[in-house]
Amino acid sequence: MGVLTIEREITTSVPPSTMFKIFVLENHIYLPKIVPHFSVEILEGNGGPGTIKKTTFGAEGSEFKYIKTKIEATDKENFSHSYSVIEADPKTEKLAKITMEMKMEASPNGGSIIKTCSKYYPKENCEVDEDKIKEKAEKAMGLYKAVEAYILANPDVCN
């Protein structure tokens, strides 16, 4: 099996500059406020490329306890961001690597169009459950709507 690529697109009513600030640049501050059982800590770096973050999920019934990610690139002017998953619990034994790219663009109504591309690289001679991965990717998209709801409920958050 080759690389599994999942592309998604979601729209929000929040401008890209605000979504990018909350979801990417300051997620270690805001995600725990938006999703109380989340915690995000910076383990190494200053938020730029090479920075390593640990996200702990903490919800009962959550399949993953935590993931560690490494920021590959962040373009604040063009609202794009990419990272790799470097560790997870439980381990993703069949995957050699997972990467994520995100791009936020202005929509005609003043909100954002968020495009994501996740790539799952299976280990040699391993088969992954494509339907299960797609299901998890769809669930993860709900986080964008949670961020949108938080911003709309707290309009002064980015002042």
Number of helices: 3
What is the straight-line distance between the termini? 48 Å
Major beta sheet summary: 7 strands, antiparallel
Please give the order of strands in the largest beta sheet: 1-7-6-5-4-3-2
Strand portion: 35-45%
Shape: globular
Task: From the alpha carbons, calculate the radius of gyration and give it in angstroms.
Answer: 16 Å
Question: What would you call the structural class?
Answer: alpha+beta
Mean pLDDT: 89
Indicate the low-confidence ranges by residue numbers.
none
Strand runs, count: 7
The H-and-E topology, N to C, reads as: EHHEEEEEEH
- The amount of helix comes to 25-40%
Description:
The protein is of the alpha+beta class and 159 residues long. 26% of the residues lie in helices and 40% in strands. The chain contains 3 helices and 7 strands, in the order E-H-H-E-E-E-E-E-E-H. Helix 1 packs across helix 3. The protein starts with a strand and ends in a 6-residue tail after the last helix. The mean pLDDT is 89.
Give the helix/strand layout.
Layout: E1 4-12, H1 16-25, H2 27-34, E2 39-44, E3 52-56, E4 66-75, E5 80-89, E6 95-106, E7 112-122, H3 130-153
Antiparallel strand pairs: 1-7, 2-3, 3-4, 4-5, 5-6, 6-7
Helix pairs in contact: 1-2, 1-3
Short description:
The protein is α+β, with helices and mostly antiparallel strands and 159 residues long.
Key terms for this structure?
7 strands, 159 residues, 3 helices
